[in-house]
């Protein structure tokens, strides 16, 4: 919808200039195969459902009372699972909110914040929102992050690992190079996809006083609908995030989300089994698509980034949609011949492969 200048005269001048993030669509089509927003194809742990039911069972209080503003039960469950102290955990309404607070807390500096030219497209949006200067560092010709590019003046650095939408992961030795080269700046590692085969930088947190690691329950814990994300860092950095959060919204995590997410972190066995299934399915899907002539970047995520030398990516995405399958296509320089495809169940992936084989590539 567009509005006239007359109508927009009420808007704050800076809001008139905002270019908001556009989320992947959530269409309501029958028999749709949705491989476009990296949701998990499996349900969350049954313990999560039990925890929500237990909150509801106390009907007198479940909705009437405010939740714990510190979400301590959830933070404690995360601290136990991540093997850190309680005061090293920050939680927010999705990691998108955690990231917003991170940008506000650490990146409003004189120098530009650095991130790759191809990465999570929310970073430029937050930067504009908070008036932060940015410098985008090109990925190399293999779509990899070259950490030696991150040794220049900056107001902070944010790296998605594994990167999105490329799916390629850095090793911890490379992350340590960035941390050591920038001891007076906060380095943020956005680990939205780390549980699908990459190494988490959480194990470096006690060694580096400038490291913030951000994760989410949306992908590896099948809880995108719940909206819970978190950050792990030394307590002096967590304190800055708490100050920002309590200047914005004291109760971002509701009673259901606190109980449900805590239950997820307490069911480690279910979590590990689900991640292993996705990794196994990814291996098979990469093999099948490669056999059809696709080139697939080496993925450590629950999605793959694939290109076909003989077919236009935009056209492929359109043809898949006609068959009821939605994948993500970015009409952006350097990646406009790629499709980002979420890993589904083996059955869903087979439908994708069969559709390519019989309806599109033949
Ligand atoms: C999905 C995603 C997020 C946001 O996750 P939510 O917790 O659902 O807000 C953050 N960063 C990256 C790179 C993502 O892909």
UniProtKB/TrEMBL annotation:
Residues bearing the modification N6-(pyridoxal phosphate)lysine: 219
Tell me the enzyme class: transferase
Q: What EC number(s) are associated with this protein in UniProt?
A: 2.6.1.9
Q: What is catalyzed by this enzyme?
A: L-histidinol phosphate + 2-oxoglutarate = 3-(imidazol-4-yl)-2-oxopropyl phosphate + L-glutamate
Q: In which pathway does it act?
A: Amino-acid biosynthesis; L-histidine biosynthesis; L-histidine from 5-phospho-alpha-D-ribose 1-diphosphate: step 7/9
* Domain of life, per lineage: Bacteria
Task: List GO molecular-function terms, semicolon-separated.
Answer: histidinol-phosphate transaminase activity; hydrolase activity
Which Pfam families did the record assign? Aminotran_1_2
Domain (Aminotransferase class I/classII large) ranges: 31-355
Q: Required cofactors, per record?
A: pyridoxal 5'-phosphate
- Keywords noted in UniProt: Amino-acid biosynthesis, Aminotransferase, Histidine biosynthesis, Hydrolase, Pyridoxal phosphate, Transferase
The keyword Hydrolase is annotated on this UniProt entry: yes
Quaternary structure (record): Homodimer.
The UniProt family comment states: Belongs to the class-II pyridoxal-phosphate-dependent aminotransferase family. Histidinol-phosphate aminotransferase subfamily.
PANTHER family in UniProt: HISTIDINOL-PHOSPHATE AMINOTRANSFERASE, HISTIDINOL-PHOSPHATE AMINOTRANSFERASE 2
Task: Please state what the protein is called.
Answer: Histidinol-phosphate aminotransferase
What is the originating organism of this protein? Acinetobacter corruptisaponis
Task: Give the gene symbol.
Answer: hisC
